[in-house]
Amino acid sequence: MFLAQKFLSGVINVVSNNIDQFLPTDPPPPRRPAVYAEQHESDEEKQFRRVFQQLAGEDMEVSPTELMDILNRIVKKHGDLKTEGFSIESCRSMVAVMDSDSTGRLGFHEFKQLWNNIKTWQGVYKKYDADGSGLIGADELPNAFRAAGFPLNDQLFSMIIRRYSDECGNMDFDNFIGCLVRLDSMCRAFKTLDKDGNGTIKVNVQEWLQLTMYS
Known about the structure:
By secondary structure, the chain is mainly alpha-helical. The chain has helices at 34-40, 43-56, 64-75, 88-98, 108-128, 141-147, 154-164, 173-193, 205-213, and strands at residues 2-8, 11-16, 200-204. Mean pLDDT is 81; it is low at 1-15.
């Protein structure tokens, strides 16, 4: 997706190939006071907020450890999803890329967006697990990522397979979700920084490191 073309005088130019083909999700809305939520949320959102409060506790925030516990409790109920469980490192990464206000935890709207994305991508995962093995094979991955909104080229697929798949090129559920969460976030960040929509962004070294290291 990205090609670093110039590293000079502390400035990095990053060029995207056909960024409009990628369909990242919208960023979560900013946090609002509880009184606003009570007055403006739909019944469905209010119900989800009650569930979130039970999961998150009194602080109404989900830490990486809490996220790991929540996700692993859920996947244990789905025997058709091949997974070794979400690791703490994977959950730290997911919290980091969804953490729009840099608190190190997920608030209600951040968690809700992640939850909805995981449900959507779970449907994609099941659809493209063509042989019912509980894994997505390397030959099934391109269509799966395309269905999730990310038509990647061969070079990117090779890189993703090396990073997220096993030795045979198969990708299990937790790696599929972890990869898509990060891919979605990075595409969203690129589109935000691409102010004039020409597929090019310019960031200095500090901005680049902040973008890539906290993820």
